[in-house]
């Protein structure tokens, strides 16, 4: 049980550190990636749904 608890605490700490790094270091790059993903999703919706 202690090993599982330690594993989950370490995983939670890594997630928090990752989010903080993304916010501080690569926020502009992160926003760019999100924008590209949203544009690709909009293009896919247009291509598969509205173009018929």
Distance between the termini: 55 Å
Category from helices, strands and their pairing: mainly alpha
Instruction: Summarize the amount of helix as a percent range.
Output: over 70%
Q: Order of SSEs, N→C? A: HH
Supply Rg. Answer: 18 Å
Let me know the largest β-sheet.
none
Number of separate strands: 0
Shape: elongated
Average pLDDT, rounded to a whole number, is: 76
What does this structure look like?
With 52 residues, the protein is mainly α. The chain is built from 2 helices and no strands. The radius of gyration is 18 Å and the shape is elongated. The termini are far apart.
Structural key phrases:
52 residues; elongated
Can you give me a brief rundown of this structure?
The chain is mainly α and 52 residues long. It has helices at 2-24, 27-50.
